[in-house]
Amino acid sequence: MGAKGLEHYLDNSATTAVSKAAADTAYRVMTQAYGNPSSLHSKGMEAETELKRARKSVASKLRVSDEEILFTSGGTEANNLALFGAAYATCRTRKKIIISSVEHSSVTEAAKRLETEGFIVERISPRPDGIVHPEDVAAAADENTAIVSIMIVNNETGAVMPVSEIFAAVKEKDEKILCHTDAVQAFGKLAVKARALGADLISVSGHKVHAPKGVGALYIKKGVRLVPRQYGGEQEKRIRPGTENLPAIAALGAACDEFDVDGNFEKVRALNAYAKEKLLSIDGVELNSPENALPYVLNISAGRVRSETMLHFLEERDVFVSSGSACAKGKPSHVLSALGLSRERADSALRISFSKHNTKDDVDALCEGIALGLKVLAHR
User: Choosing from 91, 179, 256, 327, which is the catalytic residue?
Assistant: First the structure.
């Protein structure tokens, strides 16, 4: 059991702790640069400077121009704006939407809604390796396709999708098809470069990268038209009007300034390897993440103990993991079902997700808790 008061937080794909730099920036903006960026006086200009600085920080990480970044309330809004905005912008001539069957719920539910409005949704399943393959997506693409949306990193298994190859294959079929990627789990962990990906639209979220909740961004390639989802102001090019959440936006910029993609990747990769070795030495533990998974995410199944039961057993020992996507609130995983896992194995799945702050002590506490849990809980 972990030392009293010592937390072992391994649920970073759900949310991350806000960094000191991000928190300090948010506080400074709330208490000092608190003007409305649209106001014409000096306090407004001070706030506008903060807004521009944050936009530049996010844009620099995606290797795009500042004008191509639009701030949102998070990844869910960014994904919804991309799908609905693109679908409505092209609905007179194109009615098909292509997604993978393992997308985040903010994409799958948006697609379901568009289906009720007469759009055709084609869902591409991953192959047994857990990966969505370019040729499968390209085969579905045609002159009726408005948008293709494929995530870079799956939020439950960590599977890394070959997005650049997928988008290249799609554009070869029809260059007018818009290509969107949900980069929420990749941003800050991999080098996410818009041009290299061939993406027209990219969604990112603040609270996955040590910024506060309630802020995200959508990259919109210059020349791409989206129909707004809301109306009422001139902000964000009238695509996402309303007074900007400047403290959170500035904090997102500060968090982006702290990125060390390569350095943190190597640290987390070593920690992931250590965790795999220890976990797989425990009788009854099986690995669900594919070989190419991002090391920040590790999905396992723990014997015949249901996920929620094991999750709370670990929580009592100050070890915090997830039973899947935090947005699903314990519902059966559509991702693991799409991978063909048995119901029993899916029901015992746990998602372990690392950040740059995790250590071997966290992994040791996790493994100790799971080993004990399998002994105690399996016989209840």
Answer: 327
